[in-house]
Automatic annotation (TrEMBL):
<keyword id="KW-1133">Transmembrane helix</keyword>
<keyword id="KW-1278">Translocase</keyword>
<dbReference type="GO" id="GO:0008948">
    <property type="term" value="F:oxaloacetate decarboxylase activity"/>
</dbReference>
<comment type="similarity">
    <text>Belongs to the OadG family.</text>
</comment>
<dbReference type="InterPro" id="IPR005899">
    <property type="entry name" value="Na_pump_deCOase"/>
</dbReference>
<dbReference type="InterPro" id="IPR023424">
    <property type="entry name" value="OadG"/>
</dbReference>
<keyword id="KW-0739">Sodium transport</keyword>
<dbReference type="GO" id="GO:0005886">
    <property type="term" value="C:plasma membrane"/>
</dbReference>
<keyword id="KW-0915">Sodium</keyword>
<dbReference type="GO" id="GO:0015451">
    <property type="term" value="F:decarboxylation-driven active transmembrane transporter activity"/>
</dbReference>
<keyword id="KW-0406">Ion transport</keyword>
<feature type="transmembrane region" description="Helical">
    <location>
        <begin position="12"/>
        <end position="32"/>
    </location>
</feature>
<dbReference type="Pfam" id="PF04277">
    <property type="entry name" value="OAD_gamma"/>
</dbReference>
<keyword id="KW-0472">Membrane</keyword>
<comment type="subunit">
    <text>Heterotrimer of an alpha, a beta and a gamma subunit.</text>
</comment>
<dbReference type="GO" id="GO:0036376">
    <property type="term" value="P:sodium ion export across plasma membrane"/>
</dbReference>
<feature type="region of interest" description="Disordered">
    <location>
        <begin position="42"/>
        <end position="64"/>
    </location>
</feature>
Length: 84
């Protein structure tokens, strides 16, 4: 019984040690690859973009008029719904 328990513990330690070593090597390899990619392939510089003005919707003058019209339509719909 004692022999079986010691074999189990040694197998557990060996397995956990192998996983720890593998994960440590994986972290170092990933870090090395990341540094190489940054060194040889720098991030592209962002292109300046021309900002376009927001187009007002067809038939209305400005954003305030659009909001007033929207409030009126919603108010009418709520009033009609409640009057049933």
């Amino acid at each position: 019984m004692e022999n079986l328990l010691s074999e189990g513990v040694s197998l557990m330690v060996f397995g956990m040690g192998f996983v720890f070593v593998f994960l440590t090597l994986l972290v170092f390899a990933t870090s090395l690859m990341s540094k190489l990619v940054v060194k040889y392939q720098p991030a592209p510089e962002p292109k300046p973009s021309a900002r376009k003005a927001a187009k007002p919707s067809a038939g209305t003058g400005s954003a305030a008029a659009t909001n007033d019209e929207l409030v009126a339509v919603i108010s009418a719909a709520v009033h009609k719904y409640r009057s049933r």
